[in-house]
Amino acid sequence: MRILHTSDWHLGRSFHRVSLLDAQRVFLEHLVATAEEQRVDAVLVAGDIHDRAVPPLAAVELFDDALHRLAALGVPTVMISGNHDSARRLGVASGLIEKAGVHLRTAPEGCGSPVVLSDAHGDVAVYGLPYLEPALVQPVLAAEQRSHIAVLEAAMGRVRADLAARPEGTRSVVLAHAFVTGGEVSDSERDITVGGVAAVPAAVFDGVDYAALGHLHGCQTITERVRYSGSPLAYSFSETRQRKSMWLVDLDARGTVQAERLDCPVPRPLARIRGTLEELLEAPENERHTDSWVEATLTDPHRPTEPMARLAARFPHVLSLVFDPDRTEGDAHLSYAERLRGRSEQQIAEDFVGHVRHGREADTEERRVLSDAFDAVRAAESVAR
């Protein structure tokens, strides 16, 4: 069986205030054309269809058009909701849409009910595990703990139980939206940390032939059977070096995986350049970035006059300007943003506790209280969607 694996469309998202709707439309046209040219048997979309719970009308219309194109192609499509989606909104009319061959899996209680596809070698059971917010789905899945690994293990328990009841030789595929240990992150993914732990081991997907993952925006192979497709477009400058692609996966009669990366259309290359303003304006090697979306980091000790206007004269598509003056180690004048860079919400809160108590850091019980508070806020946000 031939499968096209994609994820993290984030329809409606912009790039530093530049609309990406046209680029997303081009990608979806490319997706449908690729599915037809490669004669795929199924398209898998592993979550984050939309960029936010209530997407703009233009993004909804784009999604509607994609559904019609995929249905007209006659290729079964399985989609799950991600942590950016509103599972309940995305799942509206899913029963009706399923009649057109587009299977939306947004409810956690349906984890053990696959979409069963067939080829010359028999059945392939495709299980959709939508993003599982631990605080909300723990009771639904009867998970032992309120954690990502516990709810995923509970969901995979349902998958394995259903698979065990099927004829011997039935191959299996799981779609999931999660942060798996070993994956490389970017600045674009929303934090899904719960109880201080976000990552789950790849072993949680043992027992299935292929796990089609979403959430991380870089295309990557965790194991031969566990892969991220990544996002089709770059959504932050942290993705500058990522090659945007989809996985074309072939499952043979025994469930052996062969995978090939297929490139996605690039609306405009990204470039990160760094130096003093004069260096950036004068360096001949920067000529290649004239048509790129540019993030410029200025290292001048003092802020230059009209830096954005001067940069735009050479780089017409400069979008982001960062000031990072060269300083010696231990400089006491670091900005607040620089001091917080790379630190989680939990770490920032714990640092604040230590600061207001003149160096007496949060103890174990206080850290637990802070963790529970952050988990409750995330759960409330999910319910609101």
In words, what does this structure look like?
This protein is α/β, with parallel strands linked by helices. The chain folds into three domains: 2-263, Purple Acid Phosphatase, chain A, domain 2 (4-Layer Sandwich), CATH 3.60.21; 270-326, no CATH class; 338-384, no CATH class. The chain is built from eleven helices and 19 strands. The chain has a six-stranded mixed β-sheet with strand order 6-5-4-1-15-16. Strands 7-8-9-12-14-13 form a six-stranded mixed β-sheet, with helices on one face. Strands 17-18-19 form a three-stranded parallel β-sheet. Helix 5 (134-141) packs parallel to helix 6. The mean pLDDT is 90.
Order of helices and strands: EEEHEHEHHEEEHHEEEEEEEEEHEHEHHH
CATH architectural group of the largest domain: 4-Layer Sandwich
Sheet with most strands: strand arrangement? 6-5-4-1-15-16
Contiguous runs where pLDDT drops below 50 for at least 5 residues: none
In whole angstroms, the N-to-C terminal distance is 36 Å
Structure class:
alpha/beta
Largest sheet: 6 strands, mixed
**Can you count the beta strands?**
19
Outline, from the CA principal axes?
Answer: globular
| Average pLDDT level | 90
| CATH structural class of the largest domain | Alpha Beta
Domain count, please report it.
3
Query: How helix-rich are the residues, as a percent range?
Result: 25-40%
- Specify Rg, calculated over alpha carbons: 23 Å
Treating each run of at least 4 consecutive H or I residues as one helix, how many helices? 11
